[in-house]
Amino acid sequence: MTGEDAQRKKLIERLAASDTATLKRLAALLDDAGESRVDSGPSYLDHLRAVADSDVRGLRNAEKSYGNSWKRRGGVDTFNMLARKWDRVEKRLATTGDGASPYDIFEHIAADTKSDGFIDDVRDLRRYLMLAEAEIAARKADNVEDSGRGYLDQLQPLADGDVANIEEKERAYGSSWKRRGGIGAFMMLARKFDRIEQRVSSEMAGAQKHNLFQHIVADTRAEPLLDDIRDLRRYLILVEAEMAARGLIEIGTSRDNRS
User: Fold this and answer.
1) Beta bridge pairs of residue 204
2) N or C: which end of the chain has fewer CB within 10 A?
3) Do the beta carbons of residue 244 and residue 50 sit within 8 Å?
């Protein structure tokens, strides 16, 4: 057996062992097999700052209305909120609603023109990911078990870091993240969430199963859980920036811009 044959056999075995959801994602990607029909080129970079800042405004305004309810029940419930948002996004993308291709995140956002449409679910997931890191950063900065409202002070530095990181990667890799269109972009999101879910779904020293906060602190690996959280959040920023660059959505929500 040649090296290429051995590699092909290994790939087939991995496919055979995949769950149904993964196989459906792969099938959709093969069916698409082409470039995005509309692409902003590098113009999405002009919208990164606006997207990141809208998240900061939106979260600060939400705190005025709801306080710290998002973390009131601890790290397990915080992860469950993330998981529910992800499930909502993936369930929507599995359909052909409004003529959008299955798993094409660009088409699904463009097709849903309601004020509280699919893009709101994308934003909510991204903002929960930001809240999780902001809380951990605030606890570390103040050496406390719960930051209270201290996490609010971490939001803008995180947004600044996200924009700087994305711009640096664009200089190194260009627009490779969207080269395979909306389905390929979703596949990257799915891989990142799958990694997050896998990592928090087991117990480790100092971390209870599904306790997101404890797992972030306890994970000291070279590529820790926090890296996956950041990567997923930044990919979600890219998605909204791309759609804004195409002129298909307005950045942020009406709630974000309240005084």
Assistant:
1) 207
2) C
3) yes
At residue 204, φ and ψ (nearest 5 deg) are -145, 170
Q: In DSSP terms, which residues pair with 97 in a beta bridge?
A: none
Residue length of the chain: 259
Angle in degrees, CA 204, 209, 212, rounded to 5: 95
6 CB-near residues (< 8 Å, 6+ apart) = none
- Cα–Cα distances in angstroms (integers) from residue 137 to residues 12, 70, 75, 152, 178, in the given order: 42, 16, 14, 10, 30
Angle between the N-to-C axes of helices 74-93 and 118-142, in degrees from 0 to 180, rounded to the nearest 10: 160
The tens digit of pLDDT for each residue in 19-63 reads 776 666 566 555 544 444 579 999 999 999 999 999 999 999 999
pLDDT tens-digit map of 90-136: 999 999 878 899 999 999 999 997 867 899 999 999 999 999 999 99
